[in-house]
Amino acid sequence: MASILAVSVGNSRTSLARFDGGTLVEARRVDSVNAAAVVAEATSLADGDSMPLVLATVSPTASDAILKAVQSAGFSEVLRIGEEFGIPIATQVDDASKTGQDRLLSSCAAFRRLGQACVVVDAGTCVTVDFVDGAGVFQGGMISPGVMMQLNAMHEHTAALEKTTLTPVPTDTFGRNTSDAMRLGVIEGVRGLVQRVIERYATAYGAFPLVIATGGDAELLFSDDELINLIVPDLVLEGIASAWATATDSDDDQPKFTDPARPAAVTVNDDGE
Fold first, then answer.
1. Choosing from 47, 49, 94, 102, which is the catalytic residue?
2. What 3-state DSSP class applies to 80?
3. Percentage of residues of the chain with pLDDT beyond 70
4. What's the pLDDT at 76?
5. Residue 180 pLDDT greater than 60, yes or no
6. Which domains are assigned to the chain?
7. Mean pLDDT across the chain, nearest whole number?
8. Given pLDDT bands bounded at 50, 70 and 90, which one contains residue 262?
9. Running DSSP on this structure, what letter comes out for residue 223?
10. Helix (H, G, I), strand (E, B) or coil at 140
11. Active site residue 102
């Protein structure tokens, strides 16, 4: 069984993980603008072993710099999703080539984990909510600004709203200061949006699909959310490993996971409830 380095270049952060025989050994995250840091983490994860580096990206500018850096560092086998091989998931979108690789990879990994219709919520620079039907077909979804994008936009486009960092939602029902009011509005706004979109999908599908959340802000936003069945921070990396295993026709190298139950979808009645 083989080992690979999976690298997902996002708009803000780059995630890396080593998989040995389909088992995720360790995952790390660095800023996407720091190509040298990506190389350092990749070198550390490889630990002197020779293995393919498989890269997916939603940021061509950042990935071009990272690609040059890892090649200069001596990674001889660098494979790019969408170039050397594709993502093993069927779609019903207008143009799959314009759909973010992270969305397709996470959806591919989610369906492989759950084995049934599911919703994938990815909370990062943007928040995406995508639907995969019971046959494993990616149907499309929704894209919204992420929490930090919204907080930064409020600061940049107003005179009085201060620059605010992301912290857990205030425990007080009311925002007692400007920063708490901003955080409360953005966090609860995203959670409410996700709930409405999931309900929309459930009504169209005729049942409440399982919901799996991923992304750097998933734990903060959804750890106590009853609509979320599972939080998997490294879902897109699992998707990369799965795509590589499929391309090399190696079932033994498909990602492995230990989450126990696969709860059944819940039927929606005629009123959409």
1. 102
2. strand
3. 94
4. 81
5. yes
6. 1-80 (3.30.420.40), 89-273 (3.30.420.40)
7. 90
8. very low
9. T
10. strand
11. yes
